[in-house]
Structure formats: structure tokens, C-alpha cells
Amino acid sequence: MAEVKIERLPKLDQETLERLIEIYMRGYEGMREYGGEGESYAKRYLRWCWNKAKDGFFIAKIGDEIAGFIVCDADWYSKYEGRTVGAVHEFVLDKKFQGHGIGHVLMEKCLEYLGKHNDRIELWVGERNEKAIKFYEDYGFRRVGQSGIWVRMVKDLKREEGNASE
Fold first, then answer.
1. What is the DSSP string of 11-67?
2. Which has the closest alpha carbon to 52: 28, 22, 77?
3. Does residue 165 come out as left (phi exceeding 0), alpha (psi in the -120 to 50 range) or beta?
4. Architecture per CATH, 4-156
5. pTM of structure
6. pLDDT band at 73 (very low <50, low <70, confident <90, very high)
7. CA-to-CA distance for 101 and 4, rounded, in angstroms?
8. What residues does each domain of the chain span?
9. How, if at all, do strands 120-126 and 142-147 pair?
């Protein structure tokens, strides 16, 4: 497989949005309950992600093709924490690119980015999405709660700047 390039999404034009929707829809095949209500939902949701977290919207490219993306928000108000934390809003790889380590490269980019701004990250994952839960646990996320079919996971980070108190 060709080399993976991770880059910040430069703009969300129509063509890019359509590719991201395609990846999103494919990524949730067989788990429809977590992937929203189809393409119009995906389009609205991905636009929301872009407007909320442009700086942390990273794509993985193999050649010219987008293989997957992760949306990392450094400025998310968590009602569970009662403060601002980092959040992973969306993280999905095209099925045909899964199993090649691309997800790891994206996650590392996200953690590096959020580590500059946040001391804690939260994300939500579908309770039946065991592969994803295991993936997050391998990165040090732990389950801290559940709401309906969604499991809330958090990871504590050491701020990269290093605090005087440490």
C-alpha cells in the first residue's frame, strides 16, 4: 500500500464533502444505528464538524484518495466534565483501507493536536462497536459512562508544555 499522508483538510468543497459522506456511510455499514439516518444526515453532520473544528479536521490520503478522517475539537464544552475538554467528534476509515494502520496514524495526529490544548479528551462510541472500543482502550481511553446505545470514554493527557506543578 502507498504511503499515508495526514493533512489538515484545507477546504470542505462539494467534491470533498461527497467523498467524506461516502466514507462515513461505508464506515457504518452493518451498524446503521450509530451512523445516523443516511446521507442527508451525514452531510449536515460533517458540515457541523467542519464549522466546529476546522483546525482539527484531519484526513488520511493514499495517493490522491481520501482514505479516512478524524475530527478533533480542542474547544468542546463537556456537560459531563463541566468544562472545556478535547473531543473526537468523528473518526472513520473507508472499509477498503481498514487494517493497514491508517487509523493509528490518524489517532496519533489527533492526540498530538489535542495534547497542545487539552488535558482530557472525551468521545462517544456505539456500545456494539467492539473493535472501536478496543482500539480506544489501546490508546488509554477508559469507559466512564453510557447514554442509551452510546458509551462515553475519556483519556487524560499530560499537557505537552509541562506544568510547573508536575
1. ---HHHHHHHHHHHHHHTTT-GGGS-SSHHHHHHHHHHHHHH-GGGEEEEEETTEEE
2. 77
3. alpha
4. 3-Layer(aba) Sandwich (3.40)
5. 0.90
6. very high
7. 9
8. 4-156
9. unpaired
